[in-house]
Amino acid sequence: MSVKDILRLVPGIMILVSLALGVWVSQWWLLLAAFVGLNLLQSAFTKWCLLEDILIKMGIPKE
């Protein structure tokens, strides 16, 4: 699995988990989904993502 794949997988999982927790545990978990969405917007404009840097330093191939 490449960095490109993981960068799609992790936010998707985090949003789905936060939505499930928001429904069944507490609505405060919806803030996690909002944070992930804001991070995706930020990375679209700045072309920088912290998770990408972490994955590259871990030695995961870019493509």
Walkthrough of the structure:
With 63 residues, this protein is mainly α. It has one domain. Helix content is 75%, strand content 0%. The protein has three helices and no strands. Helix 1 runs antiparallel to helix 2. The termini are close together. Keywords: Membrane, Transmembrane, Transmembrane helix. It comes from Geovibrio thiophilus. InterPro entries: YgaP-like_TM. Pfam families: YgaP-like_TM (PF11127).
In short:
By secondary structure, the chain is mainly α. It is elongated and about 35 Å long.
What labels would you give this structure?
single chain, 63 residues, mainly alpha, 0% strand, elongated
Layout of secondary structure:
Elements: H1 3-24, H2 30-46, H3 50-57
Helix pairs in contact: 1-2
Transmembrane segments: 7-25
Protein name: DUF2892 domain-containing protein
Domain Inner membrane protein YgaP-like transmembrane: 6-55
Largest sheet: none
**Distance between termini?**
8 Å
Cα-atom radius of gyration: 13 Å
Shape: elongated
Summing up helix and strand content along with how strands pair, one would put the structural category as mainly alpha
Mean pLDDT: 95
Number of strands: 0
What share of the residues does DSSP label as strand, in percent?
Answer: under 5%
Order of helices and strands: HHH
